[in-house]
Design goal:
By secondary structure, the chain is of the alpha/beta class. It contains 10 helices and 18 strands. The chain binds zinc ion.
Length: 416
């Protein structure tokens, strides 16, 4: 028997929980990767539409990416499309080719100061800076701005400049781009000396070449298990297309490490460094108003659920009540309890999906469903890890399947 309630029936072939790129070989890869070194600069924007960049990132199973671009426009485009995936960084370059002039260029500083008043970032950089130029007035001001705006410095620098930057402020953190192209022993000595220093492995293709780590790199990672992270460095437009390949190559040598260390380098170190900054700096989501009860007759009580106005009564036959267990806000994970009552729930299984019809996509994360109670007439399922990553109208579909029924409940949920 098929019963349809509340608006339209949504075919489950639309299930977008499986995410994009599932047909590619990359989808085999399960270890998430955080890429701490992405640029999407003006020529790259012209070459590759932002939608394609996001598709490449999701295809590579990136957990998130630290993106900084010349100019900032590319970063903003990606952020708008995938706020769950992009951690924005601000570099002081308006065009390609300013790497050796920006630190004496007042206009570059003005550009940074202006964007800091309007946009939100986790880092300042990547910028190029060597030796004593790090102590010039404009780099000094950049360090002050990083401290003031709670930003990590992303420095493509030699060890000397890194030390000068760290010395200018007692709290500022530095993510050392390309680990300064230094040897593992020299990187280790810097990490040992400076506890506010982290390092990315962007453009260090010698790391794990042939799928194996050399003893020197292994020793560095073992000695500093929480300080190193991955990066691709898409400094030219075509390198964007290597994102999946780069992630997959990294997974090969990461697989030779103990699982915890592999996860640290793959994404956790980047997460632990950048996310506290990004969570604090990003535009704060507003709490949504849960829409009014969809059906006239409050049947929640019959189902043993309180008729609290925040409960969302979706249907009366069967009765489905959704109780939010935490605040529902854009891009914030939340949990709900779903209670279903009917005359016979024997063998009942519940599936949940949410899509944005206007944008043609679904949730970026698969929520976790736990059956907390299941009798013949009442079933309670806790749903954790729900993330609605964009404001707007989300269509929720709850499918109830048992040997005797196949019921689809569809309803809209608006989050602002
Ligand atoms: Zn770079």
């Amino acid at each position: 028997m098929i019963r349809l309630h509340c608006a339209v029936f949504i075919s489950f072939t639309l299930s977008l929980l499986a995410s994009v790129g599932s047909s590619s070989a990359w989808a085999q890869s399960t270890l998430p990767i955080a890429d701490a070194h992405i640029h999407y600069s003006h020529d790259s924007v012209e070459n590759t539409p932002p939608e394609r960049v996001i598709e490449l990132m999701r295809g590579a199973n990136l957990k998130f990416a630290l993106v900084s671009s010349s100019d900032d426009n590319g970063t903003q485009k990606l952020s708008e499309l995938a706020p769950d995936l992009i951690v924005p960084g601000l570099r002081p370059y308006r065009r390609r080719g300013e790497v050796s002039t920006w630190f004496t260029d007042e206009a570059a500083l003005e550009y940074v100061e202006k964007l800091l008043t309007t946009n939100h970032y986790a880092s300042l950089g990547e910028f190029h800076l060597y030796g004593e130029t790090a102590d010039l007035p404009i780099p000094r001001r950049i360090v002050e701005l990083a401290a003031k705006h709670n930003l990590v410095l992303h420095a493509h620098s030699d060890a000397d400049a890194v030390e000068r930057l760290l010395a200018q402020n007692p709290t500022v953190k530095v993510l050392w781009a390309h680990s300064g192209f230094d040897t593992p022993a020299d990187i280790a000595s810097m990490l040992d000396k400076h506890d506010r220093l982290w390092a990315d492995l962007a453009f260090r293709s010698e790391v794990g070449r042939g799928g194996k780590l050399s003893d020197e790199w292994l020793s560095l990672f073992t000695q500093f298990p929480t300080r190193m992270m991955l990066g691709t460095d898409t400094y030219t437009p075509e390198r964007m297309y290597f994102l999946p390949e780069h992630a997959e190559t990294a997974r090969v040598w990461l697989a030779t490490l103990p699982a915890e260390l592999a996860e640290n380098i793959a994404w956790k170190n980047a997460f632990d460094l950048l996310m506290p900054h990004w969570q604090a700096n990003k535009p704060q989501a507003q709490t949504s108003t849960i829409p009014a009860t969809l059906i006239d007759e409050p049947t929640a009580n019959q189902c043993g659920v309180s008729d609290d106005p925040s409960n969302y009564v979706v249907s009366s036959e069967p009765t489905l009540v959704i109780q939010p267990l935490s605040t529902i806000a854009v891009s914030e994970p939340f949990s709900v309890m779903m209670t279903i009552c009917d005359t016979d729930l024997t063998g009942m299984k519940l599936e949940l999906n949410a899509t944005m019809p206007a944008h043609g996509h679904g949730m970026n994360y698969t929520p976790e469903l736990t059956v907390v109670e299941h009798s013949d007439e009442r079933m309670k399922v806790q749903v954790d890890g729900l993330v609605l990553h964009m404001p707007g109208n989300w269509n929720w579909v709850v499918n109830l399947r048992s040997p005797s029924t196949d019921t689809t409940l569809s309803f809209d949920f608006n989050i602002q």
